[in-house]
Design brief:
about 450 residues, two-stranded antiparallel ribbon, 17 helices, about 75% helix, globular
């Protein structure tokens, strides 16, 4: 599938400049212009005077939709990372190492990464809202069973199933927004969903930290399960019914063709790699930080360590501001800024002073959430068909990065201390910068080629 210009500021990679041409949907529906959704004729407005039917800030349903997906993001991240702040306690209770305990995080994110593409196919057939609702229902049910796991093996298995259940939510949510929200508001809308992720990740860790300090890690994850149930119910009651969804096909041949098209798109491939690398940093840092802060020289109690995750509020702000950042710097400029901020935070976290470590976590969190919001929204705007699959591939890469970061970060910490974990993160950030630079050069080469062609066409 050819990358298409979205009309947004300069992107992560080169965008094609050829005039729009009809493209046939892989589901066999009528041809649609490249760069527009299949229902664009019904919602574009403008020259033909057709009113806009998609949601936009201040318009009907937008606030309900934003709150619903915000709560879905809260539930997703609270459940997905419910054991991350508790790893030292799990290690002690089950008599396992940090590397073994980290599998309670890696199994959940790995299950999500493995099942996100099949679940996105179901959402193409049965609808985004239906799949998101079912995913949350199964995930919260499993979340209520996790506290009763008798051993590490059972705990890891339940967490893997929970991650697989949650797989129906991220890709479907992005596809829902791409279909139901006006293009100009898409980055902001996805930023709010990502902000919900950050609030879920923060509140889950803070709540579990203080609850676990008094009653143990099992009660703590049970409380998170109850919170997720409330979020899931509110989500289903608030989310507006989709108006622009068109059922697709579940035929494997169609799915394979769509996925192959997305993977053949250089811009999408770069965005997938960037998402994975950003999450490698984030997964590694936040899996290990609890061990570092509970050990000398800091020796903080579990409740205080859980409160460290309040820095996720910075991620809420940076994700919500991603649209403005892209407006000022362009997508590639925003990614450079996000990567630079993350790298600065990693280096600062090496200090032996607690305030400097906390400032480093603030910068890491701000850079990660901004970069994630920019990259994920770029996927939604680049894919003009099979949006759920395009988003699913991004989410799969993203959570593979989380699993890799959790595991490799813990191993690096075991062998080299915090400096080892930081080293893994800096390598990942260098990868983000290199891929973004590759996109910058590709864009320049394409502009030069267009300039050379212009006299011949005159």
């Amino acid at each position: 599938m050819t990358p298409v210009s979205t009309g947004a500021p300069t992107g992560v990679g080169a965008l094609a400049s050829a005039p729009p041409s009809p493209t046939v949907s892989p589901t066999g529906s009528r041809p649609v212009p490249t760069g527009a959704s299949p229902d664009a004729s019904a919602s574009a407005g403008g020259s033909e005077g057709v009113p806009e039917t998609r949601m936009s800030p201040g318009g009907p349903g937008y606030r309900r939709m934003s709150l619903a997906l915000f709560l879905a993001g809260v539930a997703t991240f609270a459940l997905l990372y419910s054991t991350q702040a508790l790893l030292p306690l799990i290690s002690g209770d089950l008599a396992v190492s940090a590397g073994d305990a980290s599998w309670t995080v890696a199994a959940a994110t790995g299950g999500l990464a493995l099942f996100v593409l099949p679940m996105s196919a179901l959402s193409e057939r049965y609808g985004r809202r239906t799949v998101m609702t079912a995913s949350l229902a199964v995930a919260v049910t499993l979340g209520l069973l996790v506290p009763f796991a008798p051993s590490l093996g059972v705990l890891v298995a339940l967490r893997a199933l929970q991650g697989a259940a949650l797989a129906g939510l991220p890709a479907s949510a992005t596809a829902y927004l791409a279909e139901e929200v006006t293009p100009k508001a898409l980055v902001t809308a996805i930023g709010l969903f990502v902000a919900g992720n950050s609030v879920g990740g923060m509140s889950g860790r803070v709540i579990t930290g203080w609850v676990a300090q008094e009653w143990g890690w099992r009660v703590a994850v049970g409380v998170i399960g109850a919170v997720a149930v409330a979020c899931a119910v509110a989500f289903r009651l608030l989310l507006p019914a989709p108006r622009h969804f068109r059922p697709g096909s579940l035929r494997p041949r169609v799915l394979v063709r769509t996925v192959r098209g997305h993977l053949g798109n250089p811009l999408l491939r770069r965005l997938y790699a960037i998402g994975a690398l950003f999450m490698t940093v984030f997964g590694g840092v936040y899996t290990v930080i609890g061990y570092r802060l509970t050990e000398a020289p800091f020796s903080l109690p579990q409740g205080v360590v859980g409160s460290i995750f309040l820095v996720y509020l910075v991620g809420t702000v940076s994700a919500s501001a991603a649209g403005r950042l892209v407006g000022r710097l362009g997508r590639r400029g925003a990614l450079y800024a996000a990567g630079g901020t993350t790298a600065a935070g990693l280096l600062l976290s090496l200090a032996g002073s607690l305030p400097l470590v906390l400032l480093g976590l603030v910068l890491i969190t701000a850079g990660f959430f901004a970069g994630h919001a920019v990259a994920s929204s770029a996927v939604g705007r680049t894919a003009t068909e099979g949006r759920a699959q395009a988003s699913a591939l991004y989410q799969s890469a993203y959570y593979v990065g989380s699993s890799a970061g959790s595991t490799v970060g813990a191993l690096a910490f075991h062998s080299g201390g915090w400096a080892g974990t930081v080293g893994v993160g800096l390598v990942a950030v260098a990868g983000v910068a290199g891929i973004t630079l590759l996109g910058t050069r590709a864009a320049r080469a394409e502009r030069a080629e267009r300039t050379e062609r212009r006299p011949a066409l005159a």
